[in-house]
Amino acid sequence: MTPSRSFEEYGKRRPGGGAKLRSRRGRIAQNWWSQRFVDAIERGGDRGRLQRGRTYARAGQVVELHPRPGAVGARVQGSRPRPYLVEVTVRRWTPAEVDAVVATVVENPLLLAPLFSGDVPPGLVDLLAGIGVDLLPADAEVTYDCSCPDDGEPCKHAAAVVYALAEQLDATPATALTLRGVELPDLLRRITDAASGPSDPVEDLAVHLTSFHRLAGDLPDLGLRDRLPGRTVADDLDDVVLGPGAAGTADALRPWYVALGRGAASRPRPGRGRGQSRA
After folding, report:
1. What is the number of structural domains in the chain?
2. For residues 141 and 91, is the Cβ–Cβ distance under 8 A?
3. Cα gap 258→248, rounded to integer Å
4. Nearest residue to 268 via CA among 259, 255, 277
5. Do residues 179 and 90 make contact, with C-beta atoms less than 8 angstroms apart?
6. Domain range spanning residue 115?
7. pTM of the prediction?
8. Which of 64, 37, 57, 20 is nearest to 157 (CA)?
9. What is the CA radius of gyration of the chain?
10. Which of 2-11, 63-72, 209-218, 269-278 bottoms out in mean pLDDT, i.e. has the lowest?
11. How, if at all, do strands 71-76 and 62-68 pair?
12. Widest CA span of the chain, in angstroms?
């Protein structure tokens, strides 16, 4: 859309100076989310005003369009020199609804990749609908305010804004979240924090590490029995360790373990040569 200009500058312009819609005929909304949005609005609007609103939007008479959390502000060029001021307001999600959105994405991590790319996956809309949270507003959740003398809701100028907004939803699906009062970067930050869980402060982590490496007392009694004379490691090998078909393996290995044990006992310990005494 065109940059903001003063009313005086608009008074010098001919109607139709805004960005024209890509759609020249038929349906304006191309994608599923924008189609649902337009369908919800059209169900509660006057057919004649909606038709004139489509004509205005296609002619480029929406000269400004500024979505923000919970609303979209616009200027629509009518037959008068100065454009009309239009405000379309959408019911914001409650804090509980936002918490439900965060929890839904955390429980369904496959939704994260589309969200990080700026897309709104259909799966998210369906999952939210299943718990009573609607992403796309119904007609009863939308209100209109226009500076024109027409009391209809929506008037043709507000209807033009709705259709221009539908094309913006096609290009930037995350605008649907903005209309619900949630900016996508803030939502992703909350989802990331919720998925990672609370973390200990650095000071607490240092205390935990110090306590872990400090002996608080004697080592616990592990209940190990003294090895019986003549018993070797081979006697500890059971059928679970050896596996099927290994009967007699322990008996075959026992002499070797006995020999290894005797050899270790006869070797001098480090620092004690054969001629050294124990003094």
Report:
1. 2
2. yes
3. 16
4. 277
5. yes
6. 7-196
7. 0.61
8. 57
9. 37
10. 2-11
11. antiparallel
12. 117
State the DSSP code for 248.
T
pLDDT digits (tens, 9 = 90+) for 98-125: 999 999 999 998 999 999 988 888 889 8
Strand partners, 86: 74, 146
Residue 119 is assigned to a structural domain of this protein:
yes
Tokens standing for residue 3: 């940059």
Residue 101 one-letter amino acid: V
Q: Is residue 92 part of a domain?
A: yes
Q: Which residues pair with 90 in a beta bridge?
A: 142
CA distance 84 to 65: 12
Contacts for 14 with CB less than 8 Å, ≥ 6 apart: none
> Is it the case that residue 89 has pLDDT exceeding 60?
yes
Residue ending a domain, choose from 177, 196, 215? 196
Task: Name the pLDDT band for 220 (thresholds 50, 70, 90).
Answer: low
Q: How far apart (Å, rounded) are the C-alpha atoms in residues 214 and 20?
A: 72
Does some domain include residue 278? no
Q: Is residue 2 part of a domain?
A: no
The candidate with the shortest Cα–Cα distance to 150, out of 75, 6, 46, 54, is: 46
pLDDT at 3: 39
User: Is the domain of 172 the same as that of 254?
Assistant: no
Give pLDDT, residue 31. Answer: 77
Check whether residue 125 and residue 246 sit in a common domain. Answer: no
